[in-house]
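Appendix C: a fully annotated inverse folding record. The material below is reproduced so that readers can follow the format used throughout the book. The structure is listed first as tokens, followed by the designed sequence.
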């Protein structure tokens, strides 16, 4: 028997009913890449938190018809509801790597940030970034997709964030001290600086707003490494 593959779909899934999948890229992946056949089984997810085991009834390049066979509700959740605010990075594939690994770690929300020293000034390809997030979620066994927002200015968005918030920088307090202040299951927001770090003005802005500056350790990490390290320490620590 073939290993069951996992796919997020836009269609609403139901038990004991036929479901038509019409997304061209998904149909291509199932038919051409997987070479799936009638009778093969898949795991489908509709971002509801449930996963459905389905059996393929027909396959074509334009439409896949499946039958909803069984449903499983997944109740596991990360230790915290992590909202990650990573600065955009150059080259952009470093930022895409943050989205991929952050999704695997269990980040719930990504909000890209533009800071004084942000080098990347191009547009964010939302479609490509969403595909990276979706594939990482499928691979890592998640049943819901993280949310990806449009980029926001650091100085504008920082004062609007509620709950437990921290800005990562080597000059701050130990990360463990900050983590102790967060109740398990609650939301936490982490801001990660760009390649050249935060400016002195940005750090002063955060301090004046009463937001703690937090360090991950005694070594200097690359921006993309810091994002994944912070997510790992909070969600898997």
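Designed amino acids, in order:
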């Amino acid at each position: 028997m073939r290993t069951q593959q996992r796919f997020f779909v836009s269609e609403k899934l139901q038990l004991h009913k036929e479901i038509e999948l019409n997304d061209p890229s998904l149909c291509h992946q199932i038919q051409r890449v997987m070479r799936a056949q009638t009778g093969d089984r898949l795991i489908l997810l509709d971002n509801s938190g449930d996963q459905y085991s389905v059996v393929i009834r027909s396959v074509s390049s334009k439409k896949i018809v499946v039958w909803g066979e069984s449903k499983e509700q997944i109740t596991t959740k990360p230790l915290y509801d992590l909202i990650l605010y990573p600065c955009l990075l150059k080259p952009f594939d470093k930022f895409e790597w943050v989205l991929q690994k952050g999704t695997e770690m269990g980040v719930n929300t990504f909000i890209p940030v533009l800071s004084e020293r942000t080098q990347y000034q191009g547009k964010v390809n939302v479609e490509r970034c969403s595909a990276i997030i979706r594939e990482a979620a499928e691979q890592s066994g998640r049943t819901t997709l993280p949310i990806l927002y449009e980029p926001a200015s650091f100085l504008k968005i920082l004062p609007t964030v509620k709950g437990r918030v921290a800005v990562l920088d080597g000059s701050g307090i130990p990360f463990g001290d900050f983590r102790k202040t967060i109740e398990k299951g609650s939301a936490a927001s982490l801001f990660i600086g760009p390649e050249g770090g935060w400016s002195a003005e940005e750090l002063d802005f955060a301090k004046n707003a009463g937001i703690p500056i937090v360090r991950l350790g005694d070594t200097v990490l690359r921006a993309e490494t810091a994002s994944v390290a912070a997510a790992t320490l909070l969600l898997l620590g």
